[in-house]
Write a structure and sequence with these properties.
Distance between the termini: 20 Å
CATH architecture: 2-Layer Sandwich
Largest sheet: 3 strands, antiparallel
Number of helices: 3
Shape: elongated
Radius of gyration: 13 Å
Length: 85
């Protein structure tokens, strides 16, 4: 999650409209940390935030490797939250 937070961007159009939401992204993670089969599992309700959530996972590549004590590939669903302060 730390890597995803580092590369996440808030879309300017959504920020200007003060849109917020949480998008759930599902992907398969290889042992080497490469995500594949990236898809939207649940929408934030805002198309720009959904697109950015998918792009966040793509930009974060490579993610940390899967530890040897876990079987790989892993299928993960992560929540990517967009909030304004």
């Amino acid at each position: 999650m730390a890597r995803l937070v580092q590369v996440k961007r808030y879309p300017a159009s959504a920020r200007a409209r003060r849109e917020t939401g949480t998008a759930y992204v599902r992907f398969t993670l290889s042992r080497s940390g490469r995500p594949s089969a990236i898809s939207l599992d649940r929408s934030s309700g805002v198309a720009a935030l959904d697109r950015e959530a998918l792009d966040t996972v793509r930009r974060a590549t490579p993610l940390p490797t899967v530890p040897e004590n876990l079987s790989a590939p892993l299928t993960l669903t992560v929540a990517i939250e967009f909030t304004l302060n």
